[in-house]
Amino acid sequence: MTTAQNTPLLEIRDLSVRFGGLLALSEFSLAVEHGEIYALVGPNGAGKTTVLNCISGFVRPVAGSITFAGTSLLPLGRDRRIRLGIGRTFQQLQLFASMTVLENLLVAQHSAMRSGLFEGILPFGRAPREDHKARTRARDTLILLGLEEYADTRVSVLPHGIQKLVGVARALVLRPRLVLLDEPAAGITHQDVEAMAQNLRTWRKELGTTLLLIEHNMSLVQAVADRVCVLDYGRKLAEGEARTVLSDPAVLEAYLGREALEEPEVVRSAVHEATSISEEQEARREDSTC
């Protein structure tokens, strides 16, 4: 007998999206398993963010289906999708810069609270209990991400790499089953990318969270992704294990262009970029067991 755990958590079938005369996605399909870290990669304009926007409800496809945990998402609004257990980060940080880190995580939980304005002014009842639960969940999330020391710090004074982690913490605080990460490594240092890779593994291990990420940093993809899907011009170009897919000549051509592929040094540099972090982390693990 088929069980929920034996079926994909997220399944997209034959998804097509048009923006005017532009076909942004063409019959695109994927299946993300429970507890998987799945990466969507491809050149700029390939359709990666459009996929996330369809899942989270910001874009409606002209054809195809999206199923999450056995429920069709297309009839549902964005709030309903969040309540089903889908979290999201964006390329541009959507944080309240004048608020503290803790306050940002409390605001992120507002949609899940059931108490109304009148209940909120009472010193008893549901509202105080919900507030206590929200603060506990927020602090637990900050501890998990190693951000507890920044709880009372205004977001505006934090380094960009820490702000990126705060954005992810906002997505995780409601304990979603699936988190959509839009370029989590964009604009951060190599050291921060290593920390991000470690955090992604920790979230999956500690929370059982399934992660679907868009990323241009191939070092991060190679370090964390169980599987990779390459998009080009709205179509699936390749799918499979990261190291194999990222060394595929068709994938390299989509990223670098046919002319660049004729330069061996360019190809060697691209493959090195795709494997550097994972090799460094593997070396550290071996050293720690000696």
Automatic annotation (TrEMBL):
Occurrences of domain ABC transporter (ranges): 10-258
GO cellular component, one term: plasma membrane
Record CDD domains: ABC_Mj1267_LivG_branched
InterPro entries, per the entry: AAA+_ATPase, ABC_AA/LPS_Transport, ABC_transporter-like_ATP-bd, BCA_ABC_TP_C, P-loop_NTPase
A GO MF label: ATP binding
Domain of life of the organism encoding this protein: Bacteria
Keyword line: ATP-binding, Nucleotide-binding, Transport
Protein name per Swiss-Prot or TrEMBL: ABC transporter related protein
Organism, as annotated: Ktedonobacter racemifer DSM 44963
